[in-house]
Design goal:
Strand content: under 5%
Distance between the termini: 93 Å
Order of helices and strands: HHH
Oligomer: single chain
Structural class: mainly alpha
Number of strands: 0
Largest sheet: none
Shape: elongated
Length: 84
């Protein structure tokens, strides 16, 4: 009997009010968290960008060298094994 009463009380208006309260609570939390966000200065952004670009080129050079070495070694090995 208690279930039937609880279900009957949960009308469309009550559900809409509950959804609205959830939405306003969520938006309040978002606003609170956004107040804690700090944006980096222009100097910090430039420094970080330079570090990322240099790191990308360093890794590219490293992987190129490794790929070149493996390719050269395998070509030499295949050439040596196919000569008879």
């Amino acid at each position: 009997m208690a279930k039937a009463i609880a279900v009957a009380e949960n009308t469309g208006v009550e559900r809409a009010r509950g959804q609205w309260e959830k939405l306003t609570g969520f938006l309040g939390d978002v606003r609170s968290e956004m107040r804690k966000v700090s944006t980096p200065s222009t100097a910090e952004t430039r420094t970080t960008t330079a570090v990322v670009i240099i790191t990308v080129f360093a890794f590219a050079a490293y992987f190129w060298a490794v790929d070149f070495g493996i390719n050269h070694t395998l070509n030499a090995l295949i050439t040596k094994l196919t000569q008879r």
